[in-house]
C-alpha cells in the first residue's frame, strides 16, 4: 500500500514539475521578447527538467495503472469452448415469424369483430 502511495506521489510530482518546466519555457520566451533577443533554444535546465519530468510521469503512470491485458483476442477466448462462443444474450429474440410456422401457434387476432 505504501509503494502505491509513493507512485501516486511521484505522479503528482511529475505533473507539477512538467507544468513548471512549461511555465519556465514560456517565461524564458517572454524575457527574450522583452529584451529583443533572438530565440535559439531553451536553456539546458528547462530541457532537463522537462525530460526528467516525463520519465517520472511515464514510470509512475505505468506503476499506478496496474496490469496490462493482452491485446490478442485469442488469449481471452482460450478459456471458452466452441459452443459458447456464439452465445450472446443480447442477440436473443423471441418475437419472430418462426412462431407462425409452428403447429401449436395460435393466432390471437380477433376476426369476429366484422
UniProtKB/TrEMBL annotation:
The subunit field of the Swiss-Prot or TrEMBL record says: Component of the ER membrane protein complex (EMC).
Q: Which UniProt keywords apply?
A: Endoplasmic reticulum, Endosome, Golgi apparatus, Magnesium, Membrane, Signal, Transmembrane, Transmembrane helix, Transport
What this chain does, per the entry, is described as:
Part of the endoplasmic reticulum membrane protein complex (EMC) that enables the energy-independent insertion into endoplasmic reticulum membranes of newly synthesized membrane proteins. May be involved in Mg(2+) transport.
**Does the keyword field hold Membrane?**
yes
Q: Where in the cell is it found?
A: Endoplasmic reticulum membrane; Golgi apparatus membrane; Early endosome membrane
> Residue span of the signal peptide, if any?
1-21
Q: Which Pfam families match?
A: MMgT
Its source organism is Phlebotomus ariasi
Q: Which PANTHER family match?
A: ER MEMBRANE PROTEIN COMPLEX SUBUNIT 5, PTHR21181
* Main subcellular location of this protein, as a coarse class: endoplasmic reticulum
Protein name, please?
Membrane magnesium transporter
Q: Which family does it belong to?
A: Belongs to the membrane magnesium transporter (TC 1.A.67) family.
Q: How does it sit in the membrane?
A: Multi-pass membrane protein
Task: Give a yes or no for keyword Magnesium in this entry.
Answer: yes
Q: Name one GO cellular component term.
A: EMC complex
An MF annotation (GO) of this entry? inorganic cation transmembrane transporter activity
Q: Which positions, given as ranges, span the membrane?
A: 42-62
Amino acid at each position: 500500500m505504501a509503494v502505491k502511495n509513493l507512485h501516486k506521489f511521484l505522479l503528482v510530482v511529475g505533473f507539477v514539475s512538467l507544468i513548471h518546466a512549461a511555465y519556465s519555457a514560456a517565461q524564458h520566451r517572454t524575457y527574450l521578447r522583452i529584451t529583443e533577443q533572438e530565440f535559439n533554444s531553451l536553456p539546458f535546465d528547462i530541457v532537463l527538467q522537462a525530460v526528467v519530468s516525463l520519465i517520472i510521469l511515464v514510470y509512475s503512470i505505468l506503476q499506478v495503472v496496474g496490469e496490462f491485458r493482452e491485446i490478442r483476442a485469442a488469449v481471452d477466448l482460450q478459456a471458452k469452448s466452441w459452443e459458447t462462443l456464439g452465445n450472446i444474450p443480447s442477440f436473443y429474440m423471441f418475437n419472430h415469424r418462426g412462431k407462425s410456422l409452428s403447429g401449436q401457434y395460435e393466432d390471437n387476432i380477433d376476426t369476429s369483430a366484422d
